[in-house]
Design a protein that fits this description.
three-stranded antiparallel sheet, 6 strands, DNA polymerase, domain 1, mainly alpha, 3 domains, about 325 residues
């Protein structure tokens, strides 16, 4: 049992449960083939992104300069935290855009984000080329390097154009997502899994909670959110075409995650809300958070409403508004003449 060459490519051969198995290692280099055969457990199928990054880093370490290895370790750590438990086929364009927006929030430059994501995707492609995974990573739109970081909220003019466009028949089925992201700060999948049983219009609360087949992003993501007056009016008057889902698809079932992301981006572009950055419902969540802070809301309450695990993530929205900075120093007085 071991590796052997078939044509130009190395293959692996091993015994498992009394049966002989063969698999292409996807490489022409013997040293790489030996590495893959030694570290790839053939019993392990469908590895996570964290496992792929770990194997990829182990392969790259003896082959790269120390400076490159240091950068690769940073990338492995960052993407293991963000995507670590996901399978390669779950890395969609929407996931990439969410990573871009969150990275901009914490102050990373577009150049750094583009570079690090490019390295992470090259690791997934490395695994795909060697038949370790079946899904090739999708291509993602790079952030523009000019003009500074993309805003994570919409201006009043942009919001007016978006709300006007979503009233058109072509887009009106996205209205529940727009309203719940804008007036409650919900994430895309939180809206997709929201049922009418989760909404208490009488008391003015909606609840993000686990259901069969789905659970929120983290423990702190399970939460209660106060219903704003505008949202209450919409939910009261909205036609209930589906008994269960608040935001159903055209067939009264749940939206497909990828198709919903595609439709959202098309809506943003149709409304001419296109500043070169990601166009996802997360922009409306950012608009909600920014509006709360502009209205004098405190960070801790906003953290609970948004379902963030740590306050530092919520604090990223402070940089979105100069008004909050003005309020911070506007009342200073030391009694000087």
């Amino acid at each position: 049992m071991g590796i052997y060459k078939r044509g130009d490519v190395y293959w692996a051969r091993w015994l498992e449960d009394g049966k002989q198995h063969r698999k292409s290692l996807g490489t022409k280099q013997r040293s790489e083939a030996e590495f893959l055969f030694e570290n790839l457990t053939v019993k392990k199928t469908n590895p996570t992104v964290r496992e792929i990054l770990k194997l990829w880093l182990k392969y790259q370490t003896p082959r790269c300069k120390p400076r490159s290895v240091h950068l690769y370790k940073i990338v492995r750590k960052r993407f293991s935290l963000v995507w670590g438990d996901l399978r390669p086929e779950e890395i969609t364009i929407l996931k990439m855009e969410e990573f871009q927006e969150k990275s901009l929030m914490v102050g990373l430059s577009p150049r750094t984000i583009n570079h690090q994501m490019g390295i992470a995707l090259s690791a997934l492609k490395w695994a795909h080329d060697r038949k370790l995974i079946d899904t090739e990573p999708p291509k993602c739109k790079r952030l523009k390097l000019t003009g500074g970081p993309t805003r994570k909220f919409l201006t009043a003019t942009e919001l007016e154009k978006l709300l006007s466009k979503v009233k058109e028949p072509r887009w009106e089925r996205l209205t529940p997502f727009i309203m719940l992201a804008l007036y409650a700060g919900l994430r895309q999948q939180e809206i997709a899994w929201l049922t009418w049983e989760d909404i208490d219009l009488e008391e003015g609360w909606l609840y993000v909670r686990s259901k069969k087949g789905w659970s929120p992003k983290s423990l702190t993501s399970e939460r209660s959110v106060p219903i704003a007056d505008e949202l209450a009016d919409y939910l009261t008057s909205a036609p209930r075409t589906c008994r269960r889902w608040v935001a159903p698809s055209s067939t009264n079932g749940q939206w497909n995650r990828r198709w919903l992301g595609t439709e959202t981006r098309r809506l943003f572009k149709a409304a001419a809300v296109d500043d070169g950055g990601p166009h996802t419902l997360h922009r409306l969540r950012g608009t909600f958070a920014t509006s709360v802070l502009r209205g004098g809301g405190d960070l801790e309450s906003l953290r609970e409403v948004l379902g963030h695990s740590v306050l530092s993530v919520t604090a990223g929205y402070l940089s979105s508004t100069s008004e909050s900075k003005r309020r911070a120093v506007g009342g200073l007085s030391f009694g000087g003449g």
